Amino acid sequence: MILTFTANPSLDRTVELPGPLVPGGVHRIGADRTQPGGKGINVALGVHRAGLPVLAVLPAAPTDPLLGLLEVEGLPHRASPVAGRVRTNLTVLSSPGQTTKLNEPGAELSAPEVDGLERLLLESTSPGDSVMLSGSLAPGLPADEYVRLVTALRARGARVGVDTSDAPLAALASALDSAAPDFLKPNAEELGQILGADGAALEAEAAEGRLDGVAAAALDLHRRGVGAVLVTLGGAGGLLATEGAAWYSPSAPVPVVSTVGAGDSATAGYLIARALEEEPPLRLARSLAYGTAAVALPGTTIPRPDQVRIDATRVVRL
After folding, report:
1. What total of structural domains would you count in the chain?
2. What end-to-end distance do the CA atoms of the chain give, in Å?
3. Is-contact 264 302, C-beta < 8 A?
4. Which residue among 28, 36, 122, 167 is buried most deeply as judged by most CB within 10 Å?
5. Which domain holds residue 294?
């Protein structure tokens, strides 16, 4: 079973403008859609659409609209009840090819709500499960929440992945000696946060074919105990460090409709490949193919397997 944990889920509203977004201006919306969101939910949707058993764990009130959207999707989920409403994230798509995101922080969780959420995740996890801890932390959760959960989940015999940023990522990076996850999925900016480097520069170097910096950083995290490090590099592709080696895959050219959810789709692709016991090069190929398929879809749309072109993805060992 693959479980995903979304500590700060969202309703993802995407609006499309027929022209540029002008600060201070009045705009008419051309298209509008609301989808279930939050990084863990996005990952779970990708796994679910691939036909693999999955469970999404999240905090939400029993009457929250998000749960209704998950029912429509048919996504297996368990929600720990909270008093606050799920946040709304707004994405504005405007010409020329611009994506503007406005994200709410989310309602603060009380101490009993935090305890209930953690207990639900641990009770839902069995030995041999894969658990993906994804996204930002809701207010009320401590910055080292993922460090604590990695330790607790590993003690239950689960394989644990993490995809986060900022303070939770810094807390995890400082605790790798005792709480190294089995899988870590930073993008270039997040890898820069771990290194104290410029993530945009790392991505630009990769786009120019200079992969030494990204590869060295990923391999260093792997040597420090992280089982596999998947670095997504936007339009420059992605890199996987695992089993003492590194592989790189450039992005296949596709029309970009929306980049929202692309990294989560790549995570889903990796988890699917690992569940299928595929070797590292094919894990990277499937991951990048999922991310590439996602950018060609509107809003926070997670691709189905028939929309994913693994055969168009090239992988090289570094």
Report:
1. 1
2. 32
3. yes
4. 36
5. 2-317
Residue 94 CA to residue 302 CA, distance in Å, equals 21
The CA angle 256-252-196, to the nearest 5 degrees, is 80
Both tokens of 296, joined, read 């060609």
Kindly indicate the confidence band of residue 205, based on its pLDDT and cuts at 50, 70 and 90.
confident
What are the φ/ψ torsions at residue 229 (nearest 5 degrees)? -120, 115
Cβ contact 161:183 at 8 Å: yes
Q: What is the pLDDT of residues 56-74, one digit of tens each?
A: 999 999 999 999 999 999 9
Residue 217 one-letter amino acid: A
- Compute CA 107 distance to the chain's CA centroid, rounded to the nearest angstrom: 21
Please classify residue 277 by burial: count the beta carbons closer than 10 Å to its beta carbon, then call 0-12 exposed, 13-18 middle and 19+ buried. exposed
Where residue 142 sits, what CATH number does that domain have? 3.40.1190.20
Rounded CA separation 169/204 (Å): 22
Tokens of 85: 């409403």
